[in-house]
Amino acid sequence: EDKVVQSPLSLVVHEGDTVTLNCSYEVTNFRSLLWYKQEKKAPTFLFMLTSSGIEKKSGRLSSILDKKELFSILNITATQTGDSAVYLCAVDRTGSARQLTFGSGTQLTVLP
Amino acid sequence: DTGVSQDPRHKITKRGQNVTFRCDPISEHNRLYWYRQTLGQGPEFLTYFQNEAQLEKSRLLSDRFSAERPKGSFSTLEIQRTEQGDSAMYLCASSSLTPWAGTGDLTGELFFGEGSRLTVL
User: Fold this and answer.
1) Residue B90 to residue B46: CA distance in whole angstroms
2) Sheet of A56-58: strands edge to edge?
3) What is the pLDDT of residues A48-76, one digit of tens each?
4) What pLDDT was estimated at residue A62?
5) Which of A74, A92, B35, B76 is the one with CA 20 to 30 A from A35?
6) Which residues contact B63 (CB under 8 A, 6 or more apart)?
7) Is B41 helix (H, G, I), strand (E, B) or coil?
8) Residue A100 CB: number of other CB atoms within 10 A?
9) Considering only alpha carbons, which residue of chain B is nearest residue A9?
10) Is pLDDT at B39 greater than 60 in this prediction?
11) Which of A31, A45, A50 sits opposite B109 (nearest CB)?
12) Distance of residue B69 Cα from the nearest chain A Cα, in angstroms
């Protein structure tokens, strides 16, 4: 059975801090790893990673995948209060039609 | 708004009652998914449709759950004889069959609706 474990479960930081969120996984026939942001409503897509060592970047957010060690990290630099959310990691299998397996998420709180 | 819409947003019901949720996907999307999310957990896959065909159901989807997408557009998820353990957020998502650029992946990004929160008393 596919498994995704995220750490830490929750994190409280102050504006301007840099945070690193972790995601480890076990999946048969890995295809991709996805990061979503959920602010008490619909999860919104952040990144999809398929290849090891290639950093994906969007503004202050970046993510990288290590397929040998089976983990990914999501970095957020210069955090803002608007970054407060649950960050979800999910994995996808080859041949699937996006039946994603999600982790429990990391609750990030950014204080002013 | 041209995103995924779900109705109702909140439903409170008594144990044993039937409930039905509706999802309207993004209009050109072929695939429609139902996920369930309980407090403090990530979403769990329940089922998905390609056009009107229900192609996969999770073992989480007990016999009390039924989903339909009769004309390949909107979908309904019905829960019969609700139990307190059914209390959760029911998320709908849709995607197109447009490949992710450069990946050869045949399913596009999932776009989630804001969910229908069910509370069973």
Assistant:
1) 9
2) A3-7, A19-26, A71-76, A61-66, A56-58
3) 998 888 899 999 999 999 999 999 999 99
4) 97
5) B76
6) none
7) coil
8) 26
9) B40
10) yes
11) A45
12) 17
Are the Cβ atoms of B43 and A88 closer than 8 angstroms?
A: yes
What is the 3-class SS of B44-86, one letter each residue? EEEEEEECCEEEEECCCCCCCEEEECCCCCCEEEEECCCCHHH
Contact list in A for residue B107 (CB cut-off 8 A) is 97-98
CA dist B56 and B49 (Å) reads 7
How many residues does the structure list for chain A? 112
Token pair belonging to A105: 């998420």
- How big is the CA angle at B108 (ends B102 and B109), to the nearest 5 degrees? 110
Residues of B in contact with A4 (CB under 8 A): 42
In the chain, the amino acid numbered B88 is A
Q: For residue A99, give the chain B residue with the closest CA.
A: B45
Tell me the pairing of strands A10-14 and A106-111: parallel
